[in-house]
Amino acid sequence: MAEPITKIKHMEIPEEKIQQDNLDEVVEAIxxxxxxxxxxxxxxxxxxxxxxxxxxxxLVKHKEDAxxxxxxxxxxxxxVKVMENIVQLLFLAGDLNVGEMKTIAGxxxxxxxxxxxxxxxxxxxxxxxxxxxxxPDINRSITMLLSFLKGMGKQ
Length: 155
Fold this sequence. Notes:
Largest sheet: none
Helix content: over 70%
């Protein structure tokens, strides 16, 4: 009959092997994320050059004092109305139809671009206005503005 096993000897991995495996894993991760690491280094350099890195470090290190100072400033009477307006603005943003606003903002940008390219100081006559109404783009814009005004004026 065989003798029972009473002593188990665990295989010990040398410390040098563990360090080398860890180093290989870090080198592989650096290789895979080279662009991100280089951008991160560039960002840190820019923050350091502008003094923002020191400011951020101090802010994190003394966050309780910084938060207390910010709250003390925000509780001053001159900022009360601003804070109320920010809250109301957030509620307003929740009510807006963002898809429609995006369409209108895109059209507004195109109109501003066209206005910037147009000649300034020209005189428009009534005949020019009547002729402009035949232009489909102008007619579409005027129709949209009239619809907007009608919707805004409803009770």
